[in-house]
Amino acid sequence: MKIDFKYANGLYTNDEYNKALEEVLASKKVLDSKSGEGNDYLGWLTLPEDYLASDELNRVLKAAEKIKGESDVLVVLGIGGSYLGAKSAIELLTPYFNDGMEILFVGNSMSSSYIYEVYNRVKDKDISLNIISKSGSTTETSVATRLFLNLLVQKYGDKAYDRVYATTDLNKGILHDLCLKRGIDMFEIRDDIGGRYSVLTAVGLLPMAVAGIDILAVLKGALEAQNDCKKNESLSLLYATFRYMMYKKGYEIEILSSFEPKMRGFIEWYKQLYAESEGKDHKGIFPTGAIFTTDLHSIGQMIQDGKRNIIETMVKINEPDNEVLVPEMEGNLDKLDFLKGMKISEINNKALIATALAHHDGGVPVATLELSKLDCSNYGYMVYFFMYACGLSAYSIGVNPFNQPGVESYKKNMFALLGKPGYEELAKEINKLLEEN
Ligand code: PA5
């Protein structure tokens, strides 16, 4: 991976950069010495190294082989950090259209329409389940778990639980207790690793392995980043410095953009990582994303010409998975002969340069991350790169990167509205408020 700030030239001064660098280096000390807030959630710092040496890695590989051998479809149940990582890897590292093992994600919304369709799509196939929840009690995941466990029991009777794999806390929780009762195989989400930092555990690795992804290569790529991040001027630190400097200058939004639609899931993973880590105490850069050139025909206008509070991080992929050339048309009726014989990836690359130049001209500071190609090693590297930068960035703006107190507010209201025991008082308050309005 390479990082480049040439499309941000002139939009900051050396003094601003040096000041930000100094502060981010101070945050690096806090992160590496584990002396900051949330320091009991730093298990991910050495995770690539730890997981490569763990016994669980072999269990994950074995379970993946068993699932592939006996099922047509793996249903993965989880939400937030318990599904976005696996989904991002599968989208990024497997073909767009795939006739092999189907992997479906559910338990990540309360859409009865979606759940109904997934259920009906899989009910007559051979199914395995991977239930992923650190707390073991997240409502979206738990509701879907009931439904799909019942389906498996209906289909396979006593043998149903041999097809179920849970990734959760190994010492406590409702899911943990259920697994013990039913003899369900469990994989660990360590106490010291929060959901959004867990993609390099069984949370991400089991679904990835079932999808045929080389998880050893993913971990080795992440290990390379882990080693690089020890350095003072690692790519991750330079990126964190760029976004922190821009944040201090008043930029409020970061767009992670790519010219490869396979990056869509990765952008969703990045959004969750940065939003839940930084968005506290009325602080933080709002993380969002775009796939170009598609989105140049929708939000492009706003990026180019709207309120000047946006920075952009553009992921450039040098080598596509496959190449297509622009063919000939007899008589040049579409007037496209100037592109005849050109690689579509070359056109895409020119579009990237054109966009970066235009956005820079429009006052958007653009950082470019360059990858040789979308492969397992680069994926692992990117994951660690973004997690480490997120820790640095959050400490620099002065928030705890590893909690998410804001997420509880909607949950409390929902439990009260649904009549969950223990929420009676809040239910009264809410109902009164709703009546008054
Ligand atoms: O990053 C986080 O901690 C969250 O997004 C969680 O992953 C998400 O809320 C799901 O929680 P759980 O794994 O406990 O079901």
Features of this protein?
binds 5-phosphoarabinonic acid, five-stranded mixed beta sheet, 437 residues, alpha/beta, five-stranded parallel beta sheet, single chain, 16 helices
Uncertain spans: none
Question: Approximately what portion of the residues adopt beta-strand conformation?
Answer: 5-15%
Average of the residue pLDDT scores:
97
Oligomer: single chain
The total of beta strands comes to 10
Largest beta-sheet details: 5 strands, mixed
Describe this structure as you would to a colleague.
By secondary structure, the protein is an alpha/beta fold. Strands 1-10-9-7-8 form a 5-stranded mixed β-sheet, sandwiched between helices. The chain has a 5-stranded parallel β-sheet with strand order 3-2-4-5-6, with helices on both faces. The chain has helices spanning 14-32, 47-52, 56-70, 84-93, 112-122, 139-156, 174-182, 202-210, 215-228, 235-248, 264-278, 300-305, 344-361, 376-397, 407-418, 424-436; strands at 2-4, 73-77, 102-106, 127-132, 164-168, 185-188, 253-258, 286-291, 310-319, 366-373. Helix 7 links the parallel strand 5 and strand 6 (185-188).
